[in-house]
Amino acid sequence: MIYLNGKFMPIEEACIPVLDRGFIFGDGVYEVIPVYSRKPFRLIEHLNRLQHSLDGIRLKNPFSNDEWSHLLEQLIAKNDGEDQYIYLHITRGVAKRDHAFPQVPPTIFIMSNPLLPPPAELLVSGASAITATDNRWIRCDVKAISLLPNVLLRQMAVDVQAVETILIRDGFLTEGAASNIFVVKDKMLLAPPKSHLMLPGITYDVVLELAAANQIAHEVREVSETEIRAADEILLTSSTKEIMPITKLDGKPVGNGKPGTMFSQLHDLYQQYKATRMRGFSS
Ligand code: PDD
To answer: Are 143 and 29 in contact (CB under 8 A)?
Structure first.
């Protein structure tokens, strides 16, 4: 079951007019929210980021946080599975094709799919990534539905059986095509600072909070391409992949080529954090 413009319905019945600005211009924003034990994870943080994205494209938020929360609760209840991931998408609506903003209601679409943990094999052996020049626009802090550059960059990885493309802009790490990236050197966890050049990841925040709370040495600062290539460990984070070790970069082993101690520690802390959150909180 999905939600479209005020109604719940089976996805097969959902239709969008061809003049929807999401279809014509990619004019919209989205969120991906993991749901564990039927409870949205870090919901307020996701809704705050949604507000930031809507502000970035000058589109009014159609709902209050309480209304979003109630809507998501209903959608989760209508779908199978304890763990799900919500995909929430708002476009500027349906109007005659003209770049200028129309005065029409937005299109609001929400679906929920089963959330599967990353394959155990990738956590045990690690995953491969490649690097590429970050050729996206300079508002990567907006979670825009116009993802063509990300799609092309991610496909470069898929073409060589890698899981992600790590992006480098002007000699420095930004993020992955669909994830945030951390680098570990000499037991120090390094994270690029949030800016308009990367998506402020919700999982990225959790990892930095866990590092701070558990006396894990960490620094938020620019990470150079040289540092990426000399890393002891590289970690990928996202709402659907959680924390994943990258053990091969551009065909060469990262560090000793195996998932490292920083990965194991953060992965365990993340699983514990999820479990406590699900026991004690509703979001
Ligand atoms: N993508 N950077 C980019 C470009 C992303 O697309 C994502 C997530 C992230 C990680 O953010 P978070 O931890 O909040 O999921 C960083 C989602 C999962 C997607 O587009 O499917």
So the answer is: yes
